[in-house]
Every structure is written in structure tokens, then in C-alpha cells.
Amino acid sequence: MYKKKNFKFFLICTFSILAAFIIFSCKTVPETTVSYTEELYKLLVENKFDEAITYYESMPESLRNEYEMQKLKVSIYISAGRLDEAFNLCTELLEENSKDPDLLYIEANIYNARGDEETYITKLQNIIKLHPKHEEALGDLGDVYLGKKNYKQAEIYFTKALSINSRNANALTGLGRVKYKSSNFEEALKLLDSALAIDETQYIAWADRGKVNYEMGRYKDAIEDVKKSLSYYPDDYFNWFDLATYYLKLNKKDEALSALDKAIEINPDYYLPYIYRAGLNDQSGNYEVAKADYNKIIELFPDYYYANECLGILQWHEGLWSEAYKNFYAAYQHNPNQPSYAFMCAACMYKAGTSSARIKKFLDPVFKNIERDSLNYYIGRLLYDMTGESDVIFRIQKENGKSQKSRALFYLGLYYELKDRKDLALKYYQEAKDVVIVPSYFEYRFVDWALKEAVN
């Protein structure tokens, strides 16, 4: 949270310094100077930071050399991401103004923007030693500890900031998030509402309000809150992702997909929206789009082997045996305690016309991870020997777990499918379907597809 808030704060800080300078200018300098600062203000409002710096350099030297204006320039550099230039100018200004709290705060935030959290914390603590009532530094330390999930320490700093200024909207937002993280939702709402009453442009407060309402089951309110947040800061991909999850609670899948598309557009390197978008398109039968997203998930987050599982399922459905094998095998490598992945690999090999000798060689090490007398062991032996169905049927009859029984019936049906006994395959697929009301294993999709294809 604190990195996003500091960026926003720097815009506010920049505007505040400039506004103060404009007021001062109106009383002491010609009207032309006021026009310079007003034009600079317009560029900052539009987030045109590089243009603002170029315009700054075109202003009269006497105006550029004003100390407050030079502090403003440092802030613009930070907002523009030109951190080396910001640091150099800030260091130069500190040589003669080593105790200026605003400049010290700007220096601290340069380290924050660089990702140097340790130095950032140290600089904030040093500011508080020199200026114990520096509410922004206190609030930022609250944000730091909030990010570290040290909610007790975060609350201390936010409370200190509010004791100095009860209308500190950033601190109220931070304390509201502490209450939200502690599941004190009613108190969180009060604090967030107080922050928004002071500054309705607090996009983080709107986003957090949405989270609180979501947790309280107020999904429509949550949607309106996060939309309000996005109206002030439309480039926050986390908020677009949250919006998608809120829409899904109301079963508004098209709206959720649009929100996910936007999240991915803003940050194409974050895997989580792809997971949700792939799932939605998969459920809707948009398999090619889903497959593209599953491949992207594998690229961005290789350890998320469920993407391999889902991709393997769709490739099996399309008869892409070699591709399905690769993905089921990748899933098995990540989770060797799930023998179903290995069983599906073997099935893909049979479908692709692989020799029984090679299939047996593949399955040999698989049995090391399966309990000798378990139902899974006998399923594995069924696919290994391509005989022994009576043993499996006997153990299925003794199985009490509905999900495991249904899964075993699927493999019995698959066994008969591999032996070109479609009648028996469909018989056991139907039994697999009849056993469970809500299936919880991935192979059930094959059951569903097989039975639907038989009807058609």
C-alpha cells in the first residue's frame, strides 16, 4: 500500500508546494510569474511530468532558483521516475538545508521509489527524531508496517499521526485498512468514510471500502466503491482484478471478463488475472482463448501446475495426445503424489499408439509413490497390464468415498475405451457420473464430454 500512497502523496505534495508558491507569487511578483506557475500546475494535473520538467527549464532563472521551486522539481523528478536526477538535486539542496522536514521527507521517498525499504525506514525514523510531529512520516511508517503485516505497530504509527492531525486522510485510510485486516469491518468503514469525507479523491480508501463491503457480502456496494477508486486512478490493475472478482459474485461473467482484460492490459506480466480469465473462457467453451491464457500462466508462473492440468484436459478433448501428455507429465513432475496425472500420461501414450513396453517403462517408477493395496495401485496395474478389471471392480465396490469411487469408475471406463469397448466405457462413465453430485476431480470433465458425445 505505502508505495502507491506515496506516489499519490507526491502529487498532492507537489501541488501543495506549487499552490503555496502561486499564492506567494500573487503578492510579491509580476503576473507573468503567476502564469508560469499556473501552466506548470496544469501539466502536473495531467501527469505530464517530463513535459513539466521541460517547461520548468524554460521558466526565468530567478524563478527556477527559488528554493521552494527546486524542491518542487525534485518531486516532479520522482513522479517522472527520474530518480537519479531527483537524488542528485535533493542531495545538493540538503547541503544547505539539512533539517528541512519537507526536503528530508522527499529524500526518504526517493529511497522508497528505488525499492530500498531499509534506508527508507531509517530516513523516516530520522525525520521523526528531528520533527516528532511530522504526520506524513508517521503515516508512512504505519504503511510500511502494514505492508509487513505488523498490524499492531502500524496502528501505533497511524494513531500517532492522527493525534497530530485528526483530519489526516492518509492515516485514516491506513488505520481503516488495519481494522479491515483485523476483520473489524464496521470500524474500518467508519474510518474509511471519515477519510473520504475529508478527501473524496482518496482512491485507496475507495478500494479498501470495496474490500470491506465485499467481505460483508455487499457485492453491489463493493463494485461501486472500486469503480469510484478507478475513476481517480484507472491504472491500478489490482483494482481491476478486484472488480472482476466482485462481478463474479453476482455471476456477471461478461463484466468480469472485461475487468480482467483491463487488468491484463495494464500489467501483462501478472499471472493471477490470466488464471481467472482462462477459467471463465474454459467454462464458456472458448477453448482456444483459454488455452492461450493457460500457456501464458505457465510462462509467467511455472509452478502453477494446475495450468498444465487444465491445458492437458483441453488437449485431450481435442485429441492432441502428445501435447496433452506433455502437460499431464509437467503436472505430475510438480506433484508426484497425484497418480492421476501419471495415469493420464499413460492413457495419452496408448491413444498416440505408443508401444506397451514404453508405457510400462513409464509407469514402473510411478508405483513407488502409490500404496501397495490401495485402489490407485490397482488402477495403475490395470493400465500397466491392460487386464485385471475384476480386481478393480471388487475394490470399487468396497470404496466408501464417493469422489474416489467415481474417479475409479472413470478409469475403468477409460480402460474399456482404450480396448475399444465403447459400450462398457459408457456404462462405467455413467456410473461415475451417478456416484457424485458435485465432482471434485479433474477427470470428470472427460466423463461429461464422453456422455454428451454419445447422446449427440
TrEMBL record:
<feature type="signal peptide">
    <location>
        <begin position="1"/>
        <end position="19"/>
    </location>
</feature>
<protein>
    <submittedName>
        <fullName>Tetratricopeptide repeat protein</fullName>
    </submittedName>
</protein>
<feature type="repeat" description="TPR">
    <location>
        <begin position="203"/>
        <end position="236"/>
    </location>
</feature>
<feature type="repeat" description="TPR">
    <location>
        <begin position="237"/>
        <end position="270"/>
    </location>
</feature>
<keyword id="KW-0732">Signal</keyword>
<keyword id="KW-0802">TPR repeat</keyword>
<dbReference type="Pfam" id="PF13174">
    <property type="entry name" value="TPR_6"/>
</dbReference>
<dbReference type="InterPro" id="IPR011990">
    <property type="entry name" value="TPR-like_helical_dom_sf"/>
</dbReference>
<dbReference type="InterPro" id="IPR019734">
    <property type="entry name" value="TPR_rpt"/>
</dbReference>
<feature type="repeat" description="TPR">
    <location>
        <begin position="169"/>
        <end position="202"/>
    </location>
</feature>
<feature type="repeat" description="TPR">
    <location>
        <begin position="135"/>
        <end position="168"/>
    </location>
</feature>
<dbReference type="Pfam" id="PF14559">
    <property type="entry name" value="TPR_19"/>
</dbReference>
<dbReference type="Pfam" id="PF13432">
    <property type="entry name" value="TPR_16"/>
</dbReference>
